[in-house]
Amino acid sequence: MRITCPHCGARDVQEFTYLGDASPSRPDGLEATEAAMFDYVYQRENPAGRHRELWYHGAGCHAWLTVTRDTRTHAIEAVEPTKRPKAGTAA
């Protein structure tokens, strides 16, 4: 599988590290309940089909990327830089 990094171009998947689902938002660790943290860490969907995932380009530009791909065929639909709001700011 090849991922087209928006900064470096098409690269082999071995240059990247997979983090997981891009949709969950991490609860505030100081304010979150134990149940909320458990759900964030362990309760993940495993969809067949279109899915948004986080990938880290560790052997390239060191950017976090959001990759939209089909988990059945591994066909990549989109790759974009990941933008996450800083803690304590409005989303």
Automatic annotation (TrEMBL):
Name the Gene3D superfamilies on file: Folate-binding superfamily
Q: Which GO terms describe its biological process?
A: tetrahydrofolate metabolic process
Superkingdom: Bacteria
Give the molecular function GO annotations: sarcosine oxidase activity
Name recorded for this polypeptide: N-methylglutamate dehydrogenase subunit B
Species of the source: Bosea lathyri
